[in-house]
Automatic annotation (TrEMBL), chains A, B:
Residues covered by the Oxidoreductase molybdopterin-binding domain: 53-224
Reported cofactor(s): Mo-molybdopterin
Record organism: Trujillonella endophytica
Keywords recorded for this protein, A-Z: Metal-binding, Molybdenum, Oxidoreductase
Pfam families (alphabetical): Mo-co_dimer, Oxidored_molyb
Protein name in the entry: Mo-co oxidoreductase dimerisation domain-containing protein
InterPro entries recorded: Ig_E-set, MoCF_OxRdtse_dimer, Mopterin_OxRdtase_euk, OxRdtase_Mopterin-bd_dom, OxRdtase_Mopterin-bd_sf
Length: 367, 367
């Protein structure tokens, strides 16, 4: 890793400052899931959110190898044929970007400017990471497992291959996968071909794409993405706490139809059904609540039962609504065993894990 | 079509005004093709640019019908089984959004804020439109053919299903397709499932998605998307001229690696190969030219021969470059039989068809 002087620290936007061309360049290449795609239980690949820190790397699957090294008894070098010959599992998993909601924060941390749409659910197929680690033989005293991708770039002056560590206990969970398929097809380039990590319940930064190397460490990992980038910090001097599991969130497919430019919603009066999905990576979901009066009063939505085969996938919810003509503000919140989504932002310096509730202004037209 | 008062006309951003949350909401749901994907001759579906005016509609392919009506002898109503039973063609076609380059214009028309990346190439499979029109029997005096999609919304106060007309002569071209497949698979929802129009050589607004209705008119179409939205206008009073065929453009996959936030590029010194793709919908391509000194001097790139089987698909180009350490500005331009891409913007009121050249600042590191 070499230091190249670009910029040292993430910036906060000034009050009222619009989105800059740097943020826009990220927004036009990364993309969210249009919220009407909440109708799909499994998000079609091109609608699943994508965040790529650097460029999507060109990986030749024939020449690609996965190295398993560090504090292990038997270092491994595996090709795709060797990996895909193993017994595979499939799991439907909801993944959300840790930066989802960032562009709504005030003041706004300048980075990828997500509003609400950085989420998606896919069926991932691969081999349990624990099985590969068992084959390599983890030595006593191992602490962290570092996953390195083929994507290369600079971030706040640090040149790096993207690398993230998991605590050993998380890496050994039986549902953490080394995945080569998404929704029954080979991984698309932007989703990590030929191999990516899937860590159900964690925000997206943990699901390392274009995986080339797994290193077991006998000490905590101090790399950029763990020590600096993905932390909940009050200010620049705060070392902060790690971003890890996904906070609860419910999203609504906005009803009616939009204005092209403002994305305002319009609807005809009469019986309607509000619908969407809800999830949490930190604790079981308990309820979804809907308000049609801007949060003054709340009612329980009908929440689909948890699927025991997919404990980390979002769950559908619906709520009937028969609106009168006029302006309404719809609000939805998920409640898990640890509490409800906040009505107001819980600000932090890098704009991580903002799960403040979605608000959907709707104009119901005259009869 | 009912008028709902939202906003009357597209706005121009003030000097120095950042991108607004309304523009950002469009940028996070629509998405461009990350420029490193220029390495793919056929763009994988999730990397192909997408622009959806309103919401992606939920169309049930079992209940879906295509109506062919208006100035025809035999109105038709076709289901998917009837359509897909016909002899089909496949064509590799490059499609670019008419708004590509808009966010670089000064002053900036406020709409979908594309930088450079609203493009993609796919293999589309379907039946020639001309065959279906022949079956319906176009009556003498027909002028325009209107294509209506299932997507519904409001635009500058006009509630509408998205609808665009083609002049009859364009509609009768043998290479205009009613397509149900993209790259050998059923159309994804965001690309127009179950059926879309493909008009090779034209900007994206002509390729109507989620097609439900084809109407032959014996008079010019006066609908919003032809008469108001997609026009090259000097100012609000100018009726303007229609946006139609794609102007020439060459794009470069930026070399080296990026800074996450600024997207600045870094590279090591030594021999490199610059590469990308070039296309034009208005005239045959003649050359691609590259400058490595900000446009002071130019050299011819090596442009791949045109593929007679894909006259409307982009062509690959390469150019060798052995840079010295320091800052460089790379520029690339396509030249077609009608001329070269402009070095400076050709501004218009709605920010359409801005094909000013791409500029790529690159820092080459010390040896």
């Amino acid at each position: 890793m070499t230091e190249t002087a670009t910029r040292g620290r993430a910036r906060l936007a000034d009050p009222g400052e619009g989105i800059g061309l740097d943020e826009l360049a990220l927004a036009t290449r990364n993309h969210g899931m249009p919220l009407e795609a909440l109708r799909h239980d499994v998000t079609p690949p091109g609608l699943h959110y994508v965040l790529t820190h650097y460029d999507i790397p060109a990986v030749d699957p024939e020449r690609w190898r996965l190295e398993v090294t560090g504090a292990v008894d038997r270092p491994l070098e595996l090709d795709l044929t060797a990996l895909t010959a193993r017994p595979a599992l499939s799991a439907r998993v909801t993944i959300e970007c840790a930066g989802n909601g960032r562009a709504r924060l005030q003041p706004r941390p300048v980075s990828q400017p997500w509003l609400l749409e950085a989420v998606g659910t896919a069926a991932w197929t691969g081999v349990p990471l624990a099985a590969v680690l068992a084959e390599a033989g983890i030595t006593a005293g191992a602490v962290d497992v570092v996953f390195t991708g083929a994507d290369h770039g600079v971030e706040r002056g640090v040149e790096q291959d993207y690398a993230r560590a998991l605590p050993l206990a998380e890496a050994l969970r039986p549902d953490v996968l080394l995945a080569w398929e998404m929704n029954g097809a080979a991984l698309p380039p932007q989703h990590g071909a030929p191999l990516r990590l899937v860590v159900p319940g964690w925000y997206g930064m943990a699901h390392v794409k274009w995986l080339t190397r797994i290193e077991v460490l006998d000490r905590p990992f101090e790399g950029f993405q763990n020590a600096k980038a993905y932390r909940l910090k009050a200010d620049l001097d705060d070392p902060g706490t790690p971003v890890d599991r996904i906070r609860p969130r419910a999203l609504m497919a906005p009803p009616g139809w939009p204005d092209f430019m403002t994305r305002e919603r319009f609807l005809r009066p009469g019986p309607a059904t509000l619908s969407g999905r809800a999830w949490s990576g930190r604790a079981p979901l308990r309820a979804v609540e809907v308000s049609t009066d801007g949060g003054a009063t709340w009612g329980a939505a009908d929440l689909a039962a948890a699927d025991p085969a997919a404990p980390w996938a979002w769950r559908a919810w619906t709520a009937p609504w028969t609106p009168e003509p006029g302006r309404h503000e719809l609000v939805v919140r998920a409640v898990d065993e640890l509490g409800a989504q906040p009505l107001e932002q819980e600000w932090n310096r890098q704009g991580m894990a903002n799960n403040a509730v979605q608000r959907v202004p709707v104009t119901v037209l005259p009869d």
